[in-house]
Design goal:
Mean pLDDT: 85
Structural class: alpha+beta
Shape: elongated
Radius of gyration: 29 Å
Bound molecules: zinc ion
Strand content: 25-35%
Helix content: 25-40%
Number of strands: 8
Length: about 160
């Protein structure tokens, strides 16, 4: 049976029993889970992150962006969750599905590269300090050599 609307249930941990028609939201673990709205019984996990889904709590209900495309399930259902309502989208062709999956993959790659570049920057900073230390020692040595040369000459 196709589901027309969902009831948001805010939880910390996702329960073992997922009831059809409920949208379980764990903000602590950035995860939303529900049973596929086509009625096939498959559990659909939608992680919340900049490259996965975004949860919007509106006055009239919960919305998830972007749409839910259950490509890996038999039903291949595709729908939107807007203000607790299920809006059924058109079935996508295999080519369209592949394009969406490719874009998702590229977005993730880019996001991971971004996170890594931030981490690399963080790692570079202490290394730069190490570079500064020998050059400071080098400066002291130059000064010392200069002082010593003056000293030696005086003798
Ligand atoms: Zn389904």
């Amino acid at each position: 049976m196709m589901i027309k609307h969902v009831s948001p249930v805010f939880v910390e941990f996702i329960p073992d029993q997922i009831e059809e028609g409920n949208l379980y939201i764990s903000e602590q673990y950035n995860t939303v889970i529900h049973k596929c709205c086509c009625g096939c019984g498959e559990e659909v996990v939608t992680p919340l992150s900049p490259v996965d889904w975004r949860l919007v709590k509106g006055a009239r209900g919960i919305s998830l962006y972007p749409s839910i495309g259950n490509w890996s399930y038999q039903c291949k259902s595709h729908y939107f969750i807007r203000d607790n309502q299920i809006l059924w989208a058109e079935q996508m062709s295999p080519q369209q599905i592949r394009r969406v999956q490719q874009k998702d993959f590229q977005d993730k790659e880019r996001h991971i590269a971004y996170l890594n570049s931030n981490r690399d920057d963080a790692l570079k900073q202490p290394a730069q300090k190490h570079v500064d230390v020998p050059s400071f020692i080098g400066l002291i040595r130059t000064v010392w050599r200069f002082v010593k040369s003056k000293f030696v000459r005086r003798r």
